[in-house]
Amino acid sequence: MATAEDLDRAIDSQWDWVAEHTRTYLESGGTKGHESNGVRNLVLATTGRRSGLPRRNCLIYGTSGDEFVVVASKGGADQDPAWFLNLQTEPSVGVQVGTRRFTARARAASSAERAPLWAQMVEIFPLYGEYAQKTDREIPVVLLTPVNGSGAHATE
To answer: What is the value of pTM for the model shown?
Structure first.
């Protein structure tokens, strides 16, 4: 079960550029890397579904009410990213947004929720639309709900 405390000890992404962004973000306490190339990013720690070890990734995010929204695009690959598979097995995750850390519960958006959230995320990062055209899978949209009761607006 990943929590906010796992962010510092988690294993980095296998993608060097993601790992470097994540380390810069965390080493700066969230003051560097939160905004990059015109988009906002968060750090997500999940529990490895096979290893049981915490793993972390830096992801573009949006908000919906008090929830944070991320997209499991994997650049339009035909398989879901490992972090998404991990949170399906264990939905407790650690999150850092800017300088704020918290534990959240992750879930895939329902069909009714997905369409407006997908449109919002494509507006934030237009490449998601291109990624969707590269694959036959429906790219999951994920909602991260802080478990401590404080919501998304605390970091904006």
So the answer is: 0.91
